[in-house]
Design a protein that fits this description.
The protein is an alpha+beta fold. The protein is built from 13 helices and 31 strands. The chain has 2 domains: 134 residues, no CATH class; 260 residues, no CATH class. The radius of gyration is 27 Å and the shape is globular.
Length: 547
C-alpha cells in the first residue's frame, strides 16, 4: 500500500536490479551496504559476523578471530574464501548466479554472514597482528542473515516448496502479462518524454486489438504533434493503425475515452461515499484522490482475486452514468510472469507458439479467469453483474478510462461497484462516477504526415488491414509527425489510437517442471502465485538497510 515503506523498498529493488533475469537465473543483493560515518562505524562493527574481511587498497585478507577491543578492531591475518568473496562481489553488483533449482538450498546454506571493512591505502597496518582504529575505517559493508536465511533477494524459485504449492490459471494467459510493448516518446518542444505504451498485452496475432490513451498536450498553441514509437525490448512489434483523435472543448469538461474509442465528456465527478477492501478497510486515502499514489490491490482477501467495493450516491437521473478510472499496471506483474516462464524451461518457446493458435475469445476468457485484467461489476438486485473487463494498460503512466453503465443495471438506493483484480497487478490512482449528459463532441482524426523509420510507414499505418509498421529488432524506431491540430480553442484533448500486437523473443533454458506446473492450474491461480511470492519477499528475504 502507499504508505508501506517495506513494500516500497522491496519494489524499488525489484524495478532497479531486476530480481529475475530472462535466462532463469537467480539474482541476489547485499543486505547492508552504505557509507558509514565514524560514529556509525563504532556501533556497526560491534555486530561483527564470523567472517570478517579487510580491504586495504589492493591488499584483501580475512581477519581471523576478529573482535572489538578498546575501540579497535583486532585479529590475525588469514586467507579469504573464494566462494564467499564471489557471493559478496556478486551481491554488490546485483549479478546472477548460475544455479540449478536442485542446487538452490545448498547454495543458501553455504553463504556466510560477512562484514567487510575498507581502509585508505595510506593507512599503516601491521602485517600480522592487526589492530585497526574504528575511527580509521572509511567504509563498512555487510551481508546479514535475517531469521533462518541470508538476507539476499533470490528468485522465488529458490523457495521451490512454496512455488509449487502456488496456483496458476490457464498457462496461455500468463503470456499476456509480460507487458513491455511499443514505447511512445512525445515531444515537448525541446525533448522527448516516455509517456505511454501501445496495445499492452496483445502478445500474439490472435490478440491484436485497438488501444486508446490520452497524451499530454505539451504545446497547446501548436498545430503539430511529434513522437517516436520505439522497440526497446526483446520483441517484435506489428502496428496496424496509428492516428490521433483530437477533441477541442471548453475548459469546464474533461474528455475521457472508453475502451471502444468513444469519447465521454465529464464535468461533475463524484467521489465514492465509501471505498473498502474485503475486510472493511478504508481505501479512500489511496483511491479517492488524483495524486498518482494509488491502491495496489494488495489487501488481504478470502479469494484468490482481490476485491474492492465502492458505494456511490444515486442521483435522480442515471441515464448517463459512467465510472471513471485512473490507473496503470505494476512492474510486479512482470516478475510473477518471469517466475512462471523460468519453470517452463526449454519448453517455453514451443508453449508460446501453441498459445498463439488459441482463439481470441479463449484467450480473453482465460485471462479474466486468471486475474490479469481488472473486472468492473455492479450489484443489481443483490447479484454482481460484470460490466467491463479492463485490458492491460501498461506501467509507463496512469491512464484514464471511462466505463458507461447502462441504466437497466442500476437498482437500489445506492450504486454499488466492485473492482476485482489479481494481487498487485494494478495501481488504482482514482475512481469516481459522472452522471452529466455527454456533450456533442467533435472528434478530429489526424493521420500522420510523416512516419519515418527504416522506410516510410505512412501507408502501413493508414488503414486497418494486413499491412503493418514492423519493428522487428530491439532499437527499431519510427519518427512521426501529425499536422493540422486546431490550436485556437479553450482546451483540447489528444488521444492516441493504435492497433496491433507484439511477440516476445525471450528464451528460457533448463528443465521443465511439468508435474509441478500442472498442479498450478486453478481459477485465480496467477493472483495466488503473486500473493505467495510477495509473502516470501516480505517475510523471508527482507532487506536490511542503514537509515
Amino acid at each position: 500500500m502507499k504508505n508501506n515503506k517495506t513494500m516500497q523498498r522491496v519494489m524499488s529493488f525489484v524495478m532497479i536490479l531486476g530480481i529475475l533475469s530472462s535466462c532463469g537465473r537467480y539474482n541476489y543483493l547485499s543486505s547492508k551496504v552504505s557509507n558509514a560515518t565514524a560514529q556509525y562505524q563504532k556501533d556497526d562493527v560491534k555486530e561483527l559476523t564470523e567472517y570478517v574481511v579487510v580491504h586495504h587498497g589492493s591488499d584483501v585478507f580475512r581477519l581471523m578471530d576478529a573482535k572489538i577491543e578498546n575501540d579497535h578492531l583486532t585479529g590475525t591475518r588469514g586467507e579469504v574464501n573464494d566462494f564467499q568473496e564471489n557471493v559478496y562481489a556478486s551481491a554488490l553488483n546485483g549479478s546472477s548466479a548460475d544455479l540449478l533449482i536442485e542446487e538452490a538450498k545448498s547454495f543458501l546454506d553455504k553463504i556466510q554472514e560477512q562484514t567487510h571493512v575498507y581502509l585508505d591505502k595510506s593507512y599503516e597496518i601491521d602485517s600480522e597482528n592487526i589492530a585497526i582504529g574504528l575511527n580509521d575505517i572509511d567504509e563498512s559493508k555487510s551481508l546479514f542473515k535475517t531469521k533462518d536465511g541470508v538476507a539476499v533477494f533470490l528468485s522465488v524459485l529458490m523457495v521451490i516448496g512454496i512455488v509449487i504449492l502456488a496456483v496458476i490459471a490457464g498457462f496461455a494467459i500468463l503470456l499476456l502479462i509480460a507487458c513491455n510493448c511499443p514505447h511512445v516518446y512525445t515531444f515537448d518542444g525541446e525533448s522527448y518524454h516516455f509517456t505511454n505504451t501501445l496495445f499492452t498485452g496483445a502478445t500474439a496475432p490472435n490478440l491484436e486489438r485497438n488501444d486508446y490513451k490520452i497524451l499530454t498536450d505539451y504545446r497547446p498553441e501548436s498545430s503539430i504533434y511529434e513522437m517516436y514509437i520505439k522497440n526497446e525490448e526483446n520483441e517484435r512489434h506489428y502496428t496496424n493503425v496509428l492516428e490521433l483523435l483530437v477533441v477541442n472543448h471548453t475548459k469546464n469538461i474533461q474528455v475521457i475515452p472508453g475502451q471502444d474509442g468513444e469519447v465521454h465528456a465529464v464535468s461533475d465527478m463524484k467521489s465514492p461515499t465509501s471505498i473498502t477492501n474485503e475486510k472493511g478497510g478504508d481505501l479512500s486515502p489511496l483511491a479517492a484522490y488524483h495524486d498518482e499514489q494509488g491502491y495496489l490491490f494488495d489487501s488481504e482477501s478470502d479469494e484468490n482475486m482481490v476485491n474492492t467495493y465502492l458505494t456511490f450516491d444515486k442521483p435522480t437521473d442515471v441515464a448517463n452514468a459512467k465510472v471513471i478510472l485512473n490507473l496503470k499496471n505494476t512492474e510486479w506483474a512482470g516478475v510473477v510472469y518471469k517466475t512462471f516462464a523460468s519453470m517452463m524451461g526449454d519448453r517455453y518457446e514451443g508453449w508460446v507458439e501453441n498459445n498463439h493458435k488459441r482463439s481470441t475469445e479463449e484467450a480473453i476468457a482465460g485471462m479474466k479467469k486468471a486475474g490479469v485484467p481488472l473486472v468492473l461489476s455492479i450489484k443489481k438486485n443483490g447479484e454482481w453483474v460484470d460490466v467491463e473487463t479492463i485490458n492491460l494498460v501498461g506501467e509507463a503512466n496512469y491512464t484514464s478510462i471511462a466505463v458507461p453503465i447502462v441504466e437497466e443495471l442500476i437498482s437500489g438506493t445506492d450504486i454499488e461497484i466492485r473492482l476485482q483484480a489479481g494481487f498487485k497487478f494494478w495501481d488504482l490512482d482514482y475512481v469516481g462516477m459522472d452522471f452529466t449528459p455527454n456533450e456533442e463532441l467533435k472528434v478530429n482524426i489526424i493521420k500522420p504526415s510523416l512516419a519515418n523509420g527504416e522506410i516510410s510507414y505512412l501507408s502501413s499505418l493508414e488503414n486497418d488491414d494486413d499491412v503493418y509498421m514492423e519493428h522487428l529488432n530491439t532499437g527499431d524506431s519510427t519518427h512521426l509527425i501529425f499536422e493540422g491540430l486546431m490550436a485556437d480553442t479553450e482546451k483540447r484533448t489528444i488521444i492516441i489510437h493504435s492497433k496491433g500486437y507484439y511477440i516476445s523473443q525471450d528464451k528460457y533454458a533448463g528443465k521443465t517442471y511439468w508435474r509441478d506446473l500442472m498442479k498450478l492450474k486453478a481459477p485465480g491461480g496467477l493472483s495466488l502465485l503473486s500473493k505467495t511470492m510477495y509473502s516470501v519477499y516480505l517475510n523471508e528475504y527482507t532487506l536490511q538497510t542503514n537509515e
